[in-house]
Amino acid sequence: MHKIRRGLGWFGLTLLAIVLFYACANNVSQNLTNSAELLPSQCRIVKHLMGETCVPNNPQRIIAASESTLEAALILGLKPTATTNYAQQTDYLKARFETSASVGLDSRQLSLEKILTIKPDLILATDDYGEQQELYDRLSQIAPTVIGKWWDGKSIRWKECFQLFAQAFGKTSEAEEIVNAYNQRIAELQQQMGDRLPNTVISIVEIYPDRIRLFGKTKIVSMSSTILEDIGFPRPPSQEEGMDISLESIGDADGDIIFLMARDPEAQLYQQVLNHPLWKQLNAVQAGKVYTVEDSYWGGSGYIAANLILDDLFKYLVEKQ
């Protein structure tokens, strides 16, 4: 009888252990699933690419999972708890904040394990030229997640993404001031250009180690392309759509002014282009109006970059004239 009671005792303990195990496992699962759930009074609804998300009124542990989300946070006076390796290595951004935790290489290669350890209360990302529905489904189980549509098939939507992220941060008033200041600088540049504005054809060229790229109004676009369009500068006919060209087609890069970017000035192709007879025959080259600019912000993703581009435009198109 003693052995039977003893056996029942062990059975009871084992059964209790099993129940506790599954209870804990279920609790962890619910914590993961419900981590993005907040009371209506604790959050505000933000509409974005993947639907609607109720984001906390005062997020404290923000993950900025792309350069544009990091840039939006910084210009609005916020410091994200974590971002991506690529965003942290962007030259014009890394000088503006102390290194934060990394959650992956870029927004397409995020580490869910690292994100879980940070325990974020808000995650921001962009689709980066392709939907991320599967990733969003996972991220939104960890914390409220907002995804911006970066590419609309023709151009980049950096302004719309900024407004979205400002709404998620609860910083719409501050965002309006930033946008107004940008528009005032645009108007000032237009005024100072005067009659030269519609008659100054601007070309944007970037030389990579393996290709020559012309940035146009559509198709292959940089942020600088959209700013030139805001100002009203005409572009070369060859740059209605951006394209990659061969050295033999370098004539398509011509304009009254060329803004030149180089990923690697020491690369063989860069040296070949600048020393090629066809390059030297370009009108802008012969007029001494080829200006080398920083590719990190001319291909940037927000209003910090936009103002740096405007600094260059004032420098080369107003102060040097």
Q: Which secondary structure elements does this structure contain, and how are they paired or packed?
A:
Layout: H1 2-34, E1 43-48, E2 51-56, E3 62-64, H2 67-75, E4 82-83, H3 85-88, H4 91-94, E5 101-102, H5 112-118, E6 122-126, H6 133-142, E7 145-148, H7 158-169, H8 172-193, E8 202-207, E9 212-214, H9 223-231, E10 243-245, E11 257-262, H10 268-275, H11 277-280, H12 283-286, E12 290-292, H13 295-298, H14 303-319
Parallel strand pairs: 3-4, 3-6, 4-5, 6-7, 8-11, 11-12
Antiparallel strand pairs: 1-2, 8-9, 9-10
Describe the protein's architecture and organization.
This protein is elongated. It has 14 helices and twelve strands. It folds into two domains: about 40-170, Rossmann fold, CATH 3.40.50.1980; about 185-320, Nitrogenase molybdenum iron protein domain (Rossmann fold), CATH 3.40.50. About 45% of the residues lie in helices and about 15% in strands. The protein has helices at about 1-35, 65-75, 85-90, 90-95, 110-120, 135-140, 160-170, 170-195, 225-230, 270-275, 275-280, 285, 295-300, 305-320; strands at about 45-50, 50-55, 60-65, 80-85, 100, 120-125, 145-150, 200-205, 210-215, 245, 255-260, 290. It is of the alpha/beta class.
